[in-house]
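Task 17 of the worksheet. Students: predict the tertiary structure of the chain below and write it out as structure tokens. Keep your answer in the requested format; marks are given for formatting as well as content.
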Amino acid sequence: MSHEGLMLLGFFPHEIEAINNVKKFCGDKLWDESTIKTKWQNSRSHLSVKPTYTAGYPQVKEISIEHMDYLSTVPSHPSFQMIVKGPWAFRMVEIDPLLSLAIKVDSDYIENLYLEFKDKAFENILSLILPNKGGNLALSPSVNNFSWTTKDRGMHLQHTTSFPLVDGGIVVGFRVPIPPLPVHVKILHGKYILFDGYHRVLALRKAGHHYVPCLVSEVGSATEVQTMQEESFNLRFLLENENPPTMGHFFTDLSEKVQLLPSAKFFQIRAEDSYHILPK
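Model answer:
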């Protein structure tokens, strides 16, 4: 079943790229090629409207000292040392100017996260944006056809599909509501790029926040930033474009409402295992 999404359609420089990406993320039944072309041209027409901020150069603030005790525990996150290679810090970073690697986002997912952030105290938001624990999530052994619930984080995993293996195990597909990794901004050539946490950042923005508390790290090469190239904008395009895609553009006419194909993370779970998974 498809679900609501947003796509930065106007940033594809060529018509064929727009058509191919809509088909890849939305399937062949959403729009015919003529409709995609029309929508792409309409989005492209808004590129002449420059944002009020300088893309890639957000305002950066210190996080209040009262939260330092909590922040000191975040590096104990099991994946922290794997995701940080160079100089890093925790900062409040302006959301809209952050360069967006993301081509599309899941609106339903953002709405669920928005409800987590709406009217919440900063310390509650901080624990979701910069979690201090994660890694293997123990799943409840009580399973139905639709969802499993984690024991340690109370996270609800939507079951999307599964199929048995010959050896008695099972491969299960999930959509994970809150990725247990810190929201991560990487700095390359002086420009700030949102690397991880697109949906949480957009949900926070929707909840009325213009700054996100996040992990900020400096990197020395493009290989440390560009991941999942088929699902993201080209990094060189982001860095060299005079008006590159940013997180703020998801709230403008350059963002097109679409119906996204279901997506899932797949994990192999065997009967003898303790039901542990490691989602992104």
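Marker's comment: The chain is about 25% helix and 25% strand. Residues 15-26 form the longest helix (12 residues).
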